[in-house]
UniProtKB/TrEMBL annotation:
Residues 417-428 have a biased composition (Acidic residues). This is Uncharacterized protein. Residues 1-33, 364-459 are annotated as: Disordered. Residues 435-446 have a biased composition (Basic and acidic residues). It comes from the Eukaryota. Residues 378-391 have a biased composition (Low complexity).
Amino acid sequence: MATTTSAEAQQPKRADNDTKSPPWSSSPPPRVYGGHNFFHTQEEYFDIYQHVHAMFSMPDCKRGLVELMQDGFTELHGVIQGWTFMWARHEPMSHLSTDDKREIIASLDGYCVQEDWESIQARLPPPARANMGAFLAETMLYQHLFAKFIDSPFWFLDGRTSATMPEEDLDFHRKFQYLYERLRQGSAYSAAWWKSATIANCNAMSGTVRVHGRSELARSTTARRGRMVKLFTDELLGRRLFQLLLKPKSPAEVAIREEQLHDLLDQAAEHMIYTEGGIFGNSTVDRLPGLSTFHYQSTSVVPHQFHFTSQLRTPSFGPTEGGRILIVTRPGLSYDDRLSLGPSYKLPSQRFLPAQVLAEVPKKELKKGSKKGQNGPQATQTRTAASASKAGTLTNPAKRQRTARPVSASKAAKAAEEEEKEDYEGESDWSSLEPAERQRREREHPAFGMTLRKTPWRK
């Protein structure tokens, strides 16, 4: 006869269905599992788990790798800079007519302040003034890429109502974009998920690889993407203002230039689809007038390489702290409204590109530039007075003797030091930057990490 100990007698009596079943039991007792904000039975919990697992096993619901997205944008930026360096004009573009200059500025609305050419050029750093064609071509190229692939993420849809329909609706993506914007007004998170799932499914893309030809939709979308990239390339090359910024070349070199531009746009289209189809977030593009002033500590804005801003000091041709942003050569890009199926529920904002800008230089640099080229009656009068003073010194032996007195070494060193301070007015201490932020800026701008000297820029 079994006996009950005192310890067993003190334990609370458990229900019959709360006993532990062996692992080989075919009918385990029901359990209660915690969910997001309520409880599930074991059957409900595993049903949700299998649903989430099946959903993420589908190619159109897998998230892309953020690291690959970041590397792709960095590589694309290098390709764009290489293309403009080879084919764009590296000159002040002073040969352009007044109407051409005005049309170029007007075409870059949202990327360039809408002022006259000379006013903008006078406030830029010296390297930018001498290479207006190069960075304007880069700006137009980025403007074209963002307008075609980021502002219109459904650009690859044909809009046909049947498989036998011969013609495509070139404006269908705008109608689809309008539907997306309406969904975003109701629920930004649902719209972001719907957008990425649609892009990934139409392009037969998974989170890490692209699987072309998986379905009839994927095959037709892949074929249409090639036609659209060719159309976008011809559209950009057909712009008269864009051609004004390119070097005149022979027909053979022009063919090479067009082929390289087509490859650039094709690479951009591939990467934009991978990003938009795998990020599951809504894009935010930073341009004018949203960007108004430049601040060195900002993580959303970096200076263009023509500012030659090092991480230790700001030369006289670096951006003025709090100065106006004149031109956005590359817009900023970030993604928000990203949902997480984990305990955090929402993912933080992901920035891939900080805006690259050309801003005002310190006013003292502008004054120096104006002094070098000053003309007019007042300047002539000043030079005449200086010449007369010099002639008087030569005719007067006493004055000549006083003028010829040697300058002490300490005074010469002090004068050189004052000149050095003037040339580097507007220094900014970058030592307070976080290591990660410093590395990011150095990666985006190779010239950013260089400690440049003023000697090469002396006349």
